[in-house]
UniProtKB/TrEMBL annotation:
PROSITE patterns: ABC_TRANSPORTER_1, ABC_TRANSPORTER_2. It holds the Pfam family ABC_tran. One of its GO terms (molecular function) is ATP hydrolysis activity. SUPFAM superfamilies: P-loop containing nucleoside triphosphate hydrolases. This is NitT/TauT family transport system ATP-binding protein.
Amino acid sequence: MPQDKPSTVAGEYPAAERSAVELDAVKVAYGDRDTSYVAVARADLTVRRGEFVAVVGPTGCGKSTLLNIAAGLIRPSAGVCRIDGVPLDGLNGAAGYLFQADALMPWKRAIDNVAIGLEIRGVSRSEARERATGWLARVGLRAFTDRYPHQLSGGQRKRVALAQTLILEPKLLLMDEPFGPLDAQTRQLMGELLLGLWSEDRKAVIFITHDLEEAISLSDRVVIMSAGPGATIIGDYPVELERPRDPAEVRHTAAFARLHREIWDHLKSEVVKAYAQEDSR
Ligand SMILES: Nc1ncnc2c1ncn2[C@@H]1O[C@H](COP(=O)(O)OP(=O)(O)OP(=O)(O)O)[C@@H](O)[C@H]1O
């Protein structure tokens, strides 16, 4: 068999060339023809397999909109979103989500909150609970499996939510300000936990954040969006900081400071524009 023969699925790119996510000239307009609001004028973004991409941009520029496109929750008004080389049609079943507000069920214990996704997929209750116990241990909650969400701290609830997402082994992680409500120290610890788990199998990640330090400390690339309306992607910075990486420690390096300066110089004017536009809307 020839060494270089690509494995193909009819009508798609060769497997090796497929990206985890490809936004190709994606436009998003909300509302109808009379009240149309173009949130994103054009987004071109490729996230390679195994790549951790952070998206930053001023408030209201369309970061969540792009994530919702990749999730299949909304359809582009123009352009196409491909997942693994295939145009997305409907919900993206290969993706796991983590949002600012967690999706824990208050009436279920941590273990059952983590196990439920597997049970819905037909895994037996005993096996689902066994795997959930393993996941809770991996996120440092071995001693908390029987707690209800209201008996957990904000950071602990986030850990349960992370286990709830990762137990389903998504190929792609879509994270929208996942650590937003947490205090600064807990955010850093969550970042460290996330990177540790991510490095085990390197899923593709799109991570939305307002926090540029968080973006740089976690990701392989930081993508900047312009202020809306009609936002576009205006910057794409590789983060060439060594891995494995301690996201708290790396912030103290000179390379980090240089990159932060460079990206912030670019982002700052968009943030100012966004505030001015919000005032006049
Ligand atoms: N369903 C909708 N209908 C109308 N406009 C919407 C809708 N969803 C979002 N928008 C508008 O589209 C723009 C982009 O919103 P989006 O939530 O994607 O921005 P964002 O960058 O994630 O914001 P933030 O950083 O504040 O969370 C905003 O001006 C918002 O008001």
